[in-house]
Amino acid sequence: MRTLKTLVAAAVAVTLLAGCGGGEASPGASGDASSAPAGGSGDTLVVYTNSNGEGRGEWWTAKAAESGFKIEIVGAGGADATNKLIAEKNNPIADVAFGLNNMYFSQIQAEDALEAYEPSWAGEVDKELGDGETYWPLVKQAILLGYNSDKISADNAPQDWTDLWTKDEFKDRYERVTGLGTATAQLVFAGILSRYQDDSGDLGVSDEGWEQVEQYFQNGSPAVAKTDLFARIASGEVDMGQMPSSIIAEREKSFNVNVETVIPSVGVPLAVEQIALVKGTEKKEQAQKFIDWFGSAEVQGEFAQQFNAMPVNKEAEAQANPEVVDFFADLKQQDIDWDFVQENMGAWVEKIELEYMT
Amino acid sequence: MSSTAVRAMVRSPFVLIVGAVLTWFIAAFLVWPNINVLIATFFPDGSFSGRAAEKLFSSQRAMKALGNSFLLAVALSITVNLVGVFIVLVTHYFRIRGSRILFLGYASTFIYGGIVLAAGYKFIYGDKGIVTSLLVKMFPGMDPAWFSGFFAVLVVMTFATTTNHMLFVANALKGVDYQTIEAARNLGASTWTILRRIVLPMLKPTLFAVTILSFLTGLGALSAPQVLGGRDFQTITPMILTFTNSPTSRDLAALLAVILGLATILMLAVMSRLEKGGTYFSVSKVSSALQKQDITNPVANVVVHAVAYLLFAVYTLPVVLIVLYSFADGAAIQTGELAFGSLTLENYERVLTQPSGLRPFTVSVVYSALAAVIAVGGLLFVARLLQKYKNWVASVFEYLLHIPWILPSALLALGLIISYDHPNPLVGGAVLTGTTVILLIAFVTVKIPFTLRMLKASFASVNSSLEEAAAIMGAKTLYVFRRILLPLVLPAAAAITALNFNSLLDDYDTAIFLAHPLVQPLGLVIKANTDGAEGVDGVANTFVYTVLLMVITGVTMYLVYGRSSREKSRKKRLPAVPPASQVPGSGIPGTPVSGEDAAQPAAPVR
User: A4 CB near a chain B CB, below 8 Å?
Assistant: First the structure.
């Protein structure tokens, strides 16, 4: 017994020591990437993203390496990545950021942490989806209201978000959020509140608009931490809720449910993932080349094919999954005044968290 | 009186050196960054506005959540003490059959916590849980959703946070002088009287310290209310986290955090006051080690045994289910349906064959170990001085060292970034952002308050006459510290180090802002693989990481505890040494000092 303990202790000590060595020599030890501590100079580009889950981070790293770019991806949630980029603006560590949507990037841009750059593929994308100067669109994502189609027929399904709380049959049958920290939740509210724009109202929204928010929270079934909406649909707890378009197919399969989506007459909000150059990077030229490569039709097409994404780059569409392309072709995009939304979102989130979420 | 103490204090070179280092550290890493971040939050345009307070106090939801947090904190301070003291007595004081197995069951909280622990309890008592299904079969009329709200949160958090009792109260109990107990018994005192009048009073400093921790845990409750609180019992922490993430609402987050922080400091002040002036060590000339007590009343004996084993089941069931579910697919975990045939190794394969491989584990182990050792090593000196010198200077230092308890770790991290993203004379003109050091600094600072509290409590139970005897014989300050005090607080210090290490392993809040891009710790990888919005595998991955972390923390605790039990057995085989005891009571010159050092050939006392 005692020998065993000694062995375990020795093994752990050795691991720790090896770890120490690794820690000390870490910049050199990670692949061949040579990098000084100060933000990874050398050849490695430091890339911040919130879009690294489900193997996407690894996929990009490998693809980039094939084309001669050494990148190190730092993953963080959308809000975290945004705060990090803003906090670090005096001495930036990242060279490039991608994956954040226009709302996040406009916050970062407002703090003057991005550098203007026009990528070589700027002509292949709809400039309106970005700001046409610093951040450029990559991938489209629709923010949808989905319902259990095994239980509810298309005729009986809600026609719009507002039906959820105005029609009795949907009350308590939809999942409502318990926090506004996620981009998806914020976009749902952007879609609802911007319909009630009123300069004389509180935070630019009419009383009727706030009434909708109140009703949304009063009549919905609160989301449960670490339990996916699809799991709750499968168990019959709720029948509908918010969902980004890209996850639907995969979750339907995992939880063995069928989901259809609602296209309100005003259209659906689109989240557009973007890419931008970080201001103050020491590897500007290389970072620009990387952005040119990253958003090119060929690379975006491959990505779309691999991850069922909807590329913004028109020439990349051909390579994307035809079903996805068709879905977006039929989709009516809601006309949202993004400047208005961006200006007010912080205050809206605060007001909703303090006054309406129960 | 206090001014003389201050004058006496500054005469010692030991105090001066520790004081200088401490002053620099507090100024550079506790005060300056946090003042910066608070100024940036409360005075965004250079002028103060009462906006945050106004918004918060007019929000019904914020006030209710705040109230809930306080309610939980107060309730938890009581319930954790009740359960904690009970399990400590059952495993260390009374003679209970199978107490070693009981100990292992109760110790399961050492190795896991957070959202997965709450989920584990939900698998058992939730509306589709095992126990609930059984109960519904027995009582068809009962509400399957019985386990929710304040009651459920309190139960889960009570059982989840007895770790500090198991480590520190048990440790203090070992130091109780058995002779006093025997004397009391000879005078006719009952088991209950002995417990109440002799044993518990000796545990006071430790009980005060763990009560503060329970209070703090209640105030900061996050995952248990989220999973089990339902509509009616939500706490303030989720709101603080949301507001911390939104630059325009950060003042609200900071204000809420400061309110919670001040409450904690108030609690600290009350406890310090209660603790003052007591004698918490054995004063008998020759003390001896505690022996387990029989419960003489047969009815009481049966009841205690029954409750002990019931608690054992409560503690161990969630762990068993979490391990089982970590082999199930994500959909099964979320719908609560477990089929034994469908358990596979797929989850583990997916997590362990990622391209990043074991590197994040290594990075986290190294960072956590360094931070844990630095925090405990440094604070050993500080806690000793704060315990010895009780005057206003010491109090100021002590309260300053609790700053990390006031602010959420994301704000601490932001403070470090905005303070050290340019050459700063406080750190010799270096730029810290983007280096591997800044995360280590943050890790050390967040662990300071806990480490200090527990170390101070453990110094409080050391008999000061030992030190005086050594000093009279001419031992230097450092020698006394190294050869007399250190061995006595070492078991507690080792436990604190282990707990610090365990809690830093999966840190995300600090690491996300401060980690070097090429040296990313485990927390970031876990987050990327477990985020709710990132696929069905996410939830399964959470369970796998929890089990993997259980293994690492289990090994850590085993090393700490395996070691001490080995030494105990060695002492038993050395009849020449007086019975092992945490509190050697002999002040007679020439007698070898017992304790951990006694096992080594006694060095001649100079």
Answer: no
